[in-house]
Q: What sequence folds into this?
């Protein structure tokens, strides 16, 4: 029941029936829980007096929101233009091969999840990936293996 | 209660009001009493290992019992040389080092504390009037990367501590805001900005002063100023660098803009992907408030301004003004038709001005130095400077701020040192997914809003992604189409369906046909003709800027690199070798030992051959996945 209380305490921080708080509230929930559960969205709907279908509409519109829990190490692969011209697609393929998961999913042991993001903003050091918000610059298909291994052994 | 930070400025302000002194607070170079070590710790610096360098520096100072300050700065703009470390020994010029990975720290610091000039890793030294010069070290303003630059927006980036309001004030910060409050009426500010010729740096290029005037002229009980820091354009990162390196400049610019339009609420809409920028901006906002530069009664003038941060949730289309407004209101970030323009009816139906970070960061400079000083730079219709983010296949990557009217060639081959590894230049993509390519023959055009559009590109937010002979332009077009197609909000049909269809055609061109597609070549030719037609329709009929510019990367590559498309269609070849599906695989009979491993790995059963006899690939069945090449231990797979 811990989880439910946690949802409630987060929601209570925001004033009732104020629609503009929807996105910050969802962001807050995701930050603490890792994803948006159905239960959380129903509660948000009640709190803000917005239909749940509407909330789901907003949540699915934005790339940031996830509806499944992510792994212990969340890997973001930058697919910005600079990263692309320097070979980020091969990096992504290599990651998928190493982790045996597709972009947008989580490995079965819940260790790794993989996400493709538009641009991290470190274009000068492309290609870039980030693991739990730690950046790794100038990665290549070869260096990916080492990075993954270092997290596996942590 | 005012913190001590602000006192010199206030004293100056009071003297100025009584006519005793000039307001332009002159930066006094403080001679530090103990050594200061600066480490460039922007997102890019951290990615390159600045955190490890920082830890090593601290460890070194502790072990050697040296008393020194360690300061984290933003990014000076030379990303390719990260991690960067500067050292200032009392009485000496500040000296800057490049590529300072953790193992280099000790050697450099040993030398410098012994007052010897280190032999390696030196970038340059800062120029100063009073301090001693390091022999045989070039000055930063003579360094080829920095020499042609004129830094207004990036003036303090990578030099000051972004976490200190005092340092910003010491370098003349907030003087422009005080001048605004004491000398000008809101309409004067709008006039000055209009006269300066400052245009929106986020892409559209609308005259900022005029936009402000619309909002100022609309009667309302409440107005909003929104700063667009939703830098979704892949390949641009100047807004992040400004916020990470000099957040007070943005706050000052916003405060002036808010005064000019009569807004009492400011909102910074910033990407959630920029955690460090958000953190530094929060600190800066708190400092500004504590020192009475924001809040209910700013410096006793009776003016009000509150600045809030709203985190974007990852939608490219939210860079569009009306979509951003919907997002802040807690809705799906979809644009609406204009007019009504946001300056008349925007956030919650109130007049709203939306300006990009770089635009607002230019404002303090203009107020401080006058409209003429800004206006005298640049071309006829594009004034001042512009920050560009250089990335891709270029020797030096990072941020450059140059006067408008500089040629593309000068930026790429002068400042950035040309193409990496001596390869041949192919094109530079300007303006992200809304922009286009500049090719060899257009390298000498002067950068301004109009000439870029004439060349089929667009200023956009100023991302310059350089491509060399190893890049395939069809692939680049496909990359952008894939991006836009995913980011299309889906509200209007031309953009939603059109971009998906364009991507389909491009995929068809770079895709290897399965067996039985006898008419596929004809379909592909038809596809290209359709691409152009479709692109025109999408441009003309889409609702917002995203759709109206979505076909640009395709149309631009079709214009300059039609031969590459033709090669893909007729010869079924990708000269750059990027479109992997178009590769041809053959087996070298001399090298093949007949181990059969490739035949086992081939997912389509395209490889035949008996044990211990050379194998053969059936071309019609091969999907060019490369599994055989990876499996082969004898290097017998040839790829064309």
A:
């Amino acid at each position: 029941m811990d989880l439910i209380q946690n949802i409630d305490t987060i929601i209570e921080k925001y004033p009732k029936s104020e629609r503009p708080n929807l996105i910050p509230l969802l962001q807050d929930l995701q930050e603490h829980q890792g994803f948006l559960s159905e239960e959380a969205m129903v509660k948000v709907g009640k709190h803000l007096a917005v239909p749940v279908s509407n909330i789901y509409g907003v949540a699915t519109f934005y790339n940031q929101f996830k509806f499944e829990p992510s792994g212990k190490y969340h890997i973001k692969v930058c697919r910005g233009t600079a990263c692309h011209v320097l070979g980020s697609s091969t990096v992504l393929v290599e990651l998928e091969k190493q982790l045996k998961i597709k972009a947008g999913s989580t490995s079965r042991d819940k260790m790794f999840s993989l996400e493709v993001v538009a641009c991290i903003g470190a274009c000068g050091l492309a290609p870039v990936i980030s693991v739990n918000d730690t950046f790794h610059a100038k990665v290549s298909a070869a260096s990916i293996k080492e990075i993954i291994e270092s997290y596996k052994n942590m | 209660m005012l913190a001590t930070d602000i006192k010199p400025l206030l004293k100056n302000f009071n003297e100025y009001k009584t006519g005793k002194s000039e307001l332009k607070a002159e930066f006094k170079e403080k001679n530090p009493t103990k050594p200061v070590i600066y480490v460039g710790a922007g997102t890019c610096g951290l990615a390159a290992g600045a955190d490890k360098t920082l830890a090593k520096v601290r460890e070194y100072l502790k072990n050697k019992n040296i008393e020194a300050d360690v300061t984290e700065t933003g990014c000076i703009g030379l990303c390719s040389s990260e991690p960067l470390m500067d050292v200032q020994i009392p009485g000496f010029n500040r000296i800057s080092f490049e590529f300072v990975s953790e193992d280099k720290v000790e050697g450099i610091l040993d030398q410098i504390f012994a007052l010897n000039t280190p032999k390696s890793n030196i970038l340059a030294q800062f120029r100063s009037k009073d301090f001693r010069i390091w022999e045989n070290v070039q000055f930063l303003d003579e360094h080829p990367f920095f020499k042609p630059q004129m830094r207004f927006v990036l003036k303090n980036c990578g030099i000051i501590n972004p976490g200190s309001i005092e340092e910003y004030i010491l370098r003349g910060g907030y003087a422009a805001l005080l001048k605004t409050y004491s000398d000008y009426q809101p309409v004067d500010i709008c006039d000055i900005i209009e006269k300066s010729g400052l245009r929106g740096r986020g892409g559209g290029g609308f005259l900022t002063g005029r936009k402000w005037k619309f909002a100022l002229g609309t009667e309302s009980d409440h107005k909003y100023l929104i700063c667009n820091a939703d830098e979704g354009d892949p390949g641009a990162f100047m807004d992040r660098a400004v916020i990470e390196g000099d957040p007070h400049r943005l706050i000052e610019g916003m405060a002036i803009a808010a005064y000019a339009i009569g807004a009492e609420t400011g909102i910074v809409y910033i990407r959630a992907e920029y955690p460090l920028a958000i953190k530094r901006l929060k600190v800066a906002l708190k400092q500004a408030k504590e020192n009475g530069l924001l809040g209910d009664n700013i410096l006793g003038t009776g003016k009000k301004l509150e600045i809030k941060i709203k985190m974007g949730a990852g939608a490219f289309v939210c860079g569009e003004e009306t979509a951003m407004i919907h997002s802040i209101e807690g809705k799906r970030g979809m644009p609406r038709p204009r007019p009504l323009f946001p300056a008349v009816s925007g956030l919650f139906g109130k007049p709203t001005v939306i300006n990009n970070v770089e635009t607002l960061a230019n404002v303090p400079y203009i107020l401080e130095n006058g409209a003429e000083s800004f206006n005298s730079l640049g071309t006829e219709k594009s004034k001042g400077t512009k920050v560009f983010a250089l990335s891709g296949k270029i020797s030096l990557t990072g941020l450059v701020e140059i006067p408008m009217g500089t040629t593309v060639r000068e930026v790429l081959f002068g400042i950035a040192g040309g193409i990496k590894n001596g390869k041949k230049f192919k094109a530079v993509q300007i303006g992200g997914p809304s922009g286009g390519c500049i090719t060899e023959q257009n390298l000498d055009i002067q950068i301004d809003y109009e000439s870029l559009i004439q060349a089929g590109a667009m200023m956009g937010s100023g991302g310059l992604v350089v491509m060399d002979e190893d890049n395939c332009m069809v692939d680049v077009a496909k990359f952008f189409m894939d991006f836009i197609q995913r980011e299309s909000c889906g509200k209007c049909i031309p953009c939603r369906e059109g971009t998906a269809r364009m991507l389909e055609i491009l995929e068809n061109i770079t895709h290897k046909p399965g067996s039985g597609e006898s008419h596929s070549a004809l379909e592909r030719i038809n596809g290209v003709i359709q691409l152009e037609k479709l692109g025109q329709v999408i441009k003309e009929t889409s609702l917002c800027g995203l759709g109206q510019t979505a076909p640009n990367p395709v149309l631009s590559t079709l214009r300059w690199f039609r031969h590459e498309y033709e090669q893909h269609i007729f010869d079924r070849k990708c000269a750059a070798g990027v479109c992997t599906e178009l590769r041809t695989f053959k087996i070298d009979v001399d090298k093949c030992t007949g181990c059969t491993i490739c035949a086992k790995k081939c997912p389509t059963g395209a490889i035949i051959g008996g044990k211990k006899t050379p194998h053969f690939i059936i071309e019609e069945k091969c999907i060019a996945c490369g599994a055989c090449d990876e499996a082969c231990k004898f290097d017998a797979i040839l790829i064309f």
